[in-house]
Design brief:
The complex is a heterodimer.
Chain A lengths: L24 H23 L5 H8 L2 H32 L4 H16 L2 H9 L1 H4 L2 E5 L6 E6 H4 L2 H27 L2 H9 L4 H31 L11 H12 L2 H32 L1
Antiparallel strand pairs in A: 1-2
Chain B lengths: L1 H4 L2 H4 L4 E10 L2 E11 L4 E5 L6 H8 L7 E6 L2 E2 L2 E4 L2 E4 L2 H9 L1 E4 L11 H11 L5 H14 L15 H13 L5 E5 L7 H17 L3 E5 L3 H7 L2 E6 L2 E6 L1 H6 L4 H10 L2
Helix pairs in contact in B: 5-6, 5-7, 6-7, 7-8
Classes of the chains: A mainly alpha, B alpha/beta.
């Protein structure tokens, strides 16, 4: 025999908790320290007599700089597309049942992931020093259908694109391989049971699903490739940094020209990050 | 005629003929000398405890698994191999694909393609493999969706469908290729209990209205009793008992069968 449970009578119903928050003293102190450092750095840059800001504004929109920016964007975009295609091919070869094919792909990844990008670029840029001609013919014979001197075709732009895309594809092949392997076995079996062969399964079932998984890391790769494209200045790739350093060689305002380049890099990367955010959101919605 | 009389397979050509099949996974033998003949249009339920080799046998019929000994024939044709002068030759991929078109499969985990809508899932293989004109394939897919009670879900992606709905789409996808044999691998085992009924209803409808040969691995004894022509009980990689549903389920001859049924039918 228990009495029915009754809530105690409420004299006045509380509508909202009235709470005094706990004080985080450490957080407050840290915030003040960080703010002081930030102000000091900005003021130091802004008021530094050795940095002539008018020079920065003068060159920020100069035709030469804009042309360099255009080249940077072109090199990165073309290299990214080539790297993407190469990386899919290498990733597919890597999971081939043939040991030789997968071994070749493993070697490719090992080589181009292992060589520092700057070394690779210098190699490609100076290809003409150790290969005289590009030739199309039958290997190990003297039969040649078509031939052209390396130094005539290997422009700094082409060398930059090749260097960036080959180096990028080494990393990206591993990302793509991870994406391919992430598709579960049931998808392969369902495709097989419907009568799809391996190639069609890859093209219509596995790759489209893998691409979705790969979009975020590929977005990051594109952003890193854009930044890495600055390295092509070592072979005078005609990119933003090459132009900025070229101008500084004439006017001796190195820091100002680097600031000009930095502003553009940050701007482009901000835009790309925003684009990537929206693309990812769209893909995630599906 | 006399020549054929000597060969039981030739005189009674089953749609699916499994003869003397052993299957090993590494050091582990999972199928022991399986003999099973399934007639055209017959509906067979494979039952038995988990690990008894039912699913493996089903997957061997579709050549998703390779057998180690014996022969499997579907429609009189050897599955996965061609036999020339007493030697087996592995089939080239396009031949194996052609064979699989004739044998449909519905999986425990549905395995719908998540990047395609329900309609695209069904129409995809007819368009790509059978070269059915797109409009015709889509119309057929829509009518199949209606038949499984999902006419309004044509544009939905698998992730927007319940398990039961996904499995019904998967059944429609398999049927769309007009296979002569349709295999179901525990089609309701991954479903929430309240969704099992809708899938079983679709399957019953299929058994009654189509002339496909159907093999179902299942734990649904009520379903097996209602629609199966024959129930085959497997245990430890062997066919233990086979007969009409009432023979196997009501008057099992083998102790192993009785033990299993006592455990599952409460």
């Amino acid at each position: 025999m228990t009495a029915p449970v009754q809530s105690p009578p409420l004299l006045m119903r509380e509508t909202k908790l009235n709470v005094v928050p706990v004080r985080h003293w450490g957080r407050g102190v840290l915030a003040v320290v960080v703010a002081i450092i930030l102000v000091a750095v900005v003021a130091g840059l802004w008021t530094n007599p050795n940095i002539q800001w008018p020079v920065v504004w003068q060159f920020l929109f100069s035709p030469a700089i804009l042309k360099g920016l255009g080249t940077t964007l072109a090199i990165s975009a073309v290299a990214m597309v080539i790297a993407l295609v190469l990386s899919v091919i290498i990733a597919v070869m890597r999971i081939s049942p043939s040991r030789i094919v997968s071994g070749f792909a493993a070697g490719y990844v090992f080589l181009f992931r292992g060589i520092p990008m700057i070394v690779l670029l210098i190699f490609v840029g100076n290809l003409g020093l150790f290969f005289k001609n590009f030739a199309l013919g039958i290997p190990f014979t003297d039969i040649v259908f078509w031939s052209v001197p390396v130094k005539d075709v290997m422009t700094p732009f082409l060398a930059s694109v090749i260097g960036l895309s080959v180096a990028g594809s080494g990393y990206m092949a591993e990302i793509v391989r991870g994406g391919l392997l992430s598709i579960n076995r049931g998808q392969h079996e369902a495709a097989k049971a419907l009568g799809l062969n391996g190639t069609r399964t890859l093209r219509y079932i596995v790759l489209p699903q893998a691409m979705k998984v790969l979009l975020p890391p590929m977005g990051n790769e594109f952003i890193s490739m854009l930044k890495a494209s600055a390295i092509v200045s070592v072979i005078a790739g005609g990119d933003l940094l090459t132009v900025a350093l070229g101008i500084s060689g004439v006017n001796f305002r190195t820091i100002e020209m680097l600031i000009v380049a930095t502003i553009w890099y940050l701007l482009v990367i901000t835009v790309l990050t925003i684009v990537q955010h929206f693309v990812e959101k769209r893909v995630a919605a599906r | 005629m006399t020549l054929e009389m000597n060969d039981p397979i030739a005189t009674v050509p089953g749609m699916v003929e499994v003869a003397g099949v052993d299957k090993w996974f590494g050091q582990n033998q999972v199928l022991f000398d399986i003999d099973l003949s399934i007639a055209e249009g017959e509906m067979v339920c494979l039952i038995g405890p988990s690990g008894s080799g039912k699913s493996t046998l089903l997957r061997c019929i579709n050549h998703l698994e390779e057998i180690n000994t014996g022969r499997i024939r579907v429609g009189g044709e050897l599955i996965g191999y061609t036999e020339k002068r007493g030697r087996l030759h592995e089939m080239p991929e396009h031949e194996a694909c052609r064979q699989r078109v004739g044998v449909g499969m519905v999986f425990q985990q549905f395995n719908l393609f998540p990047h395609m809508t329900a309609l695209e899932n069904i129409a995809f293989a007819p368009i790509k493999i059978k070269k059915t004109p797109r409009a015709q394939a889509l119309a057929r897919a829509q009518s199949l969706l209606e038949r499984v009670g999902l006419g309004a879900k044509a544009g939905s992606y698998p992730s927007q469908l319940s398990g039961g709905q996904q499995q019904r789409v998967a059944i429609a996808r398999a049927v769309a290729m007009d296979p002569t044999v349709l295999l179901f691998d525990e089609p309701t085992s991954a479903l929430d209990p309240e969704l099992v009924g809708e899938v079983l209803e679709v399957m019953k409808d299929l058994v009654r209205t189509s002339n496909m040969t159907i093999v179902v691995v299942t734990h649904e004894m009520g379903f097996a009793r209602e629609v199966a022509d024959r129930v085959v009980f497997m245990a430890d990689g062997r066919v233990v008992e086979s007969g009409t549903p009432s023979q196997v389920l009501d008057t099992p001859q083998n102790a192993r069968t009785r033990e299993f049924l006592a455990a599952v039918i409460r």
